[in-house]
Amino acid sequence: MSLLLRFKEGLAKTRARTISRIAGIFGRGHIDDQILEELEDALLEADIGVDTVEELIEKLRENDSGRKRGEDFDPLKILKSLLVDQLTDCSLLVHPERFTQKPWVILLVGVNGSGKTTTSGKLAHYYGRQGKTSVIAAADTFRAAGIEQVEIWAKMGNARLVKQKTGADPAAVAFDAHQSALSRGEDLLIVDTAGRLQAKRNLMEELGKISRVLQKKDPTAPHEVLLVLDATTGQNGLSQARGFTAAAGGTGIVVTKLDGTARGGVIFPIRKELGLPVEFVGLGEGLEDLQPFEPKLFVDAIMEA
Amino acid sequence: MFEELTEKFEKFVRNLRGQGKLTEANVRDTMRQVRRIMLEADVSLSAAKAFVKSTTEKSLGSEVLTSITPGQLLVKIIHDELVAFLGGQAEPIRFGKSPSSILIVGLNGTGKTTTTAKLALKLKRQGRKPLMVAADTRRPAAIDQLVTLGKQLDIPVFISDVVDPIKIAEASREHARSNSLDCLIIDTAGRMHVNDELMDELVRLQKAVKPPETLLVVDGMTGQDAVRSAKTFTERLDLTGLILTKLDGDARGGAALSIRWVTGKPIKFVGVGEKPADLDTFHPDRMAGRILGMGDIVSLVEKAQASVDAEKAAKFASKLAKQELTLEDFREQLTQLKNMGPLDSLLAMIPGLSGAMKGMQFDESELTGVTAIIDSMTVDERRTPRIIDGSRRRRIALGSGRSIQEINRLLNQFDQMNKMMKQMGKRGGKMPFKLPGIPGMSG
Q: Could you tell me the pTM of the whole model?
């Protein structure tokens, strides 16, 4: 199933009513407060956040008042293009040509339950199909049975797993995995870290330590630090992006669980403040359900259906 | 939890205090701000609108009494309405005939398995004999996770080779009976509410088990989607309550309002940390006070009582009221702290502190250092810290192996804490509504 279909499926039930009405009214032409409010509500309910929504509505209003008399005005189309414009230069990781180093090191970070382990297996699978070999470092040594879980995902994703015991130093696991990947000449190292809330300073510092340890063998590592963000997350997502970027130098985002009704709109304020691109989206529990992020489809799914 | 929300409410409450009249204009203006604050705190749009509507109506209709300012009245109305929205009194777990079951359900990654273990520990501490049932046969290693937690907590876990959660639940009931265990906590697989097939499975499971409690576990960081998913869960299943998790971070927790509003079910517990004991009873009344910057001193004292013996806690509470804390009390509290849960969330409960604490971080390992410093003091020094001069500080530094700067910092913090306690005492009489009863503390 295509990304759009899958994504739309979830959204269909809640979105149809408002938007179709707006499209109908606007053939003839004048923006009124009620319509603006409906659009505003739709954006707010997508978790885009009050500030960003107000800016978007203001821009929409400017677009309306700035147009020539008699000129057609489709607010939905304008709004969508305003949204898409904010998502340029995403999906940089789609092609493994980017991997100029062996192994290319991807550090997966995020809060508890966002889907890091699942993503590590799916990433290995994604690149495996493009002929790249992967190693997964089981650096979540905290969670009960965290290692067993990543073991299963590594197997499914056809990746080699490097692990130690529960409670082991996650930086040591990352280092071991890095060293062995270097000596075996493997293409990709995916470091699956323990979930942590960004407000916990000590745990955040541990991520810095993992990064530093990886730099021992390769000063350019980690090459990607991906924040795994649950699509159901609200405005706390911005705080997550800030916290993890400060601690581990985030380079991009993976939005998971987009197969429900959550829109994941918090990526807009994150993009605006921190510039982080969205790389992949998670659309289900299967191996194939991690797909490159497509801004236009994403925006369509938020505003249409 | 609710920190930013609290902070913002505190701010506009301060602004309101200067206002003379409760006019339609300033009520509406305030309510616009309330709506904005709520949206920023991830309260769902529909819940925020409903809240603003009913609060506005109540505000406009109410008479301003001469004894309070219009601002105070408005704050009280907002507070009462928040209490109502968050849902009356704290509700305990319901039990049926033994073995009674508790069904744990929710979306993926909200913390069901962790919560299952936390709840089991809580019930065990209340004298029950829980059996954790590993009915999540979908997520890789979910069963291992529960088994590991069971070992850690010395609580039995029921596992089975069968894939059908209904069969597992039925077999677990037999197992509980023959091992005289009196409650089953059934951990189910996470599922998307739009996945009809999996939702059907849950409906069948609930019909088969007929649990007196079916609890929906919701991630405290959830945004607008909270209403959509909770609505489906409550429509499909006979939910009896909610558990909000991951509230030990900086999530504003607006989802609490949304899910309570959309389901009408009580929030029974909140997850406040990664340790098995970090599951707190949810107190809507106190939470509302906390949102308004009143702090949550009752929860603090209760928490202390659970970990410390009652007598010590009562002594501490009365000292807190009289504002005569010594470094000895301080040390005693510090040594108990580790059993109480994350320090940040504990300190956030002290009235007036949430604003002052913004941006401060608490490293629990530093507690050991602080204890060492106090240990190196004489009894007189602990009781009368102001006698600690330069030469005493040097001696304490040598004795404790900490730097003089650390000792200065501790003494300063302690001093500030005492000042804060005194201010609280003075401010007490002027508060718009009473602090819930603590022995010896006037409201």
A: 0.78
